[in-house]
Amino acid sequence: MGRSARRAYDLHDIEIVPSRRTRTSQEVSTAWQLDAYRFEIPLVTHPTDAIVSPATAVRIGQLGGLGVLNAEGLWARHADPEAMLARVVEASEGDIEEGGVPAAVRLLQELHTAPIQPDLLAEALRPAREAGVTVAARVSPQRARELTPHLLAAGVEILFVQGTIISAEHVSHAAAEPLNLKQFIADLDVPVVAGGVGDYRTAMHLMRTGAAGVLVGYGESLATTTDAVLGIGVPMATAIVDAAAARRDYLDETGGRYVHVIADGGIFGSGDIAKAIACGADAVMLGEQLADADDSPASGLYWTPAAAHPSLPRSEVIGLEPRGRDLETVLFGPSDWPDGTINLFGALRRAMAKTGYSDLKEFQRVGLTIRR
Asked: Are 66 and 44 in contact (CB under 8 A)?
């Protein structure tokens, strides 16, 4: 009494409805385009050191996706980040330190106290630039003004301004002026993707800042603890549909400016990728799905950048079962695991073909049902 709440749905609560036609999967396109940059699969990597190194960013780009390097991670702070990752792997095997803090999380906090060095950041981005793949990096709203000039000088072509929860209007009485996203984006010559958001109103406000894309969600995975720590979250199917509604209304408001919706979290297999697109996402941001690939830099461990927060970490360090697959196999198969974790985008292509749709924009119109 006196309070109301919306009923909201996760991706596992919905199902895709077959249509009256099917088509050959070879005739289906999974390509999408963000600003001037075309990608053959709707994949953006979660910007965590656990899965994105300079080498894997190049490999993801060669396979048709977009690898996003964390500009505040180990590659920007340490001259030998592989050695630091090896220390995290070793710490994860020790379970719990004295005081009840997971050893790997405590070590990540310690490693992230080292200052960010622009020369190391530029060196980490150089392989992607030289390989000819799209160069992308993530900064937090707190460090965006400081780091963006260095990122642009290093050749970044798409900038991600990402926090657990982000808004277009940050209210603060502190001496430092908060980031004005609208002014910040207007001053840049590269497209900016901002997020995460979980509702229509915030998504609309971010679109009005001039963002080329909006991240929906906070990277919900087996590793994240944001819901337990902050009690904040919106089930992903509802969050994506709301952001897609904001995109439609903003398109009408501006007379044709399209803002991409990228689903970040709540995706545990290929079926969830298909459902996220069906709800209105243009692409998905994946993390733990790529962590157990043989070429993943953290040897099967996964965490999000929130694990290294100095006072309130919101991610654990988890270990995934190694299965002897490289990134190409995880993305395109062939698969001998019938659980939707291998051949992720081959499965998306098959789902689109089975429901008769030829491209991602058409597939966003597919019918949906609620499980319960």
From this structure: yes
- pTM of the predicted model, to two decimals? 0.94
**Nearest alpha carbon to residue 359 among 16, 29, 66:** 29
Cα 208 from Cα 206, distance rounded (Å): 5
Domain boundaries, the chain: 11-72+132-370
- Residue 157's nearest CA partner among 181, 138, 136 is 136
Closest CA to 250 of 317, 204, 209: 204
To which residue do tokens 């405590």 refer?
106
Range list of β-strands (E), the chain:
14-17, 32-34, 37-39, 43-45, 68-70, 136-139, 158-162, 192-197, 213-220, 260-265, 283-286, 301-302, 318-319, 367-370
- pLDDT tens digit sequence for 128-151: 999 999 999 999 999 999 999 999
36 phi/psi in degrees, rounded to 5: -90, 5
Which of the pair, 2 or 178, is modelled with greater confidence? 2
Question: How much is the CA Rg of the chain, to the nearest whole Å?
Answer: 20
Taking the C-alpha atoms of residue 114 and residue 109, their distance in angstroms, rounded to an integer, is 10
Q: Which two tokens stand for residue 332?
A: 């395109």
Q: Max CA-CA distance within the chain?
A: 61
Residue in this structure with the two tokens 């099917």, named with its chain if needed: 22
Which band of pLDDT confidence, cut at 50, 70 and 90, is reported for residue 232? confident
Record: fold of 11-72+132-370: TIM Barrel (3.20.20)
For 94-121, write each residue's pLDDT tens digit.
Answer: 655 545 568 999 999 999 999 999 999 9
